[in-house]
Amino acid sequence: MNEAFPPVTEKFPVLVTGGAGYIGSHAVLALLDQGWPVAVLDNLVTGFDWAVPEAATLVVGDIADADLVARTLAEHKIGAIMHFAGSVVVPESVENPLKYYDNNTVRSRALIAAAVAAGVPHFIFSSTAATYGIPEVVPVAEDMPKRPINPYGWSKLMTEQMLADATAAHPFNACILRYFNVAGADPQGRAGQSTAGATHLIKVAAEAATGKRGHVAIFGSDFDTPDGTGVRDYIHVSDLAAAHVAALEKLIAEPERNHVMNCGYGRGFSVLEVLDAVDRITNVTIERRLEPRRAGDPPSLVADNSRILATLPWRPQRAELDTIVADALAWERRLADR
Ligand code: UDP
Fold it and tell me: Could you tell me if the CB of 182 is within 6 A of ligand 1?
């Protein structure tokens, strides 16, 4: 880690919305591990109360409940918000776009308004590589065109725009983190992806490897990629969580109105490479079935991560595909034992 900015000495409480969910729960752990007090606001629709560590305070409720949010910000003396709460399934966003514009856009607007009204100066937002749509150039950099190809991507891009405008108008700093493909689980086994009905490749493959499903579908083998299957930049959830803490410390040390940073490793793996890794690690061959492409899947999505590397002292710690897969598998086995 470089010493780009001084360590934060005064650690104030951080509100983590969606802190009972997959990525949010890892951010809670990363904050607590670094000595930040944490309050979680989660409606527990897709999150789990047991995913919130005892050291954090859980407030059950919705980010659009203005009274509850105002009360929570005041009572807990919140100095920063990490906003993870939202809906994340791309195909569902195509079938039910208004749900996505409500959960990810309208409700985020309410939360941002509450933060500005309460004078909470720092806001870190979960955005997505889905804002790029099908990039013309891979690896894709932050200032390349944003042309989402599904309502999920639009719902997040609209919130990015609200944040950009709100930071220009108010004494309010935001850091927008655009995640590539998040996978894996806490290496200490304290958290992982627990939501039923998973659609994301590494989670699906981990379920297949632990006998929870019979096969894995390969959605398309005729893409213009080295082996014909889709290529993605898989980032370990603990590295992603660490990026959030680094982004918070950056905002505090050098308040700047609106940062946007890709969160990825700058390299991609194909579906076949991921499945090969799972087979190799488990010594079991998962049944693979070739299926047609899914609507709206870009052939290749890889981050240009030079901005985050230049801006934050953050460095990847668990970027090996085998590490990501092994951590995902370990969590899947724990879930099976629950
Ligand atoms: N994929 C697949 N089978 C699955 C799930 C995903 O072949 O059961 C492929 C998908 O087409 C894409 C890659 O794996 O090329 C990553 O998909 P995922 O749903 O994990 O994330 P996305 O990139 O869509 O956000």
Answer: no
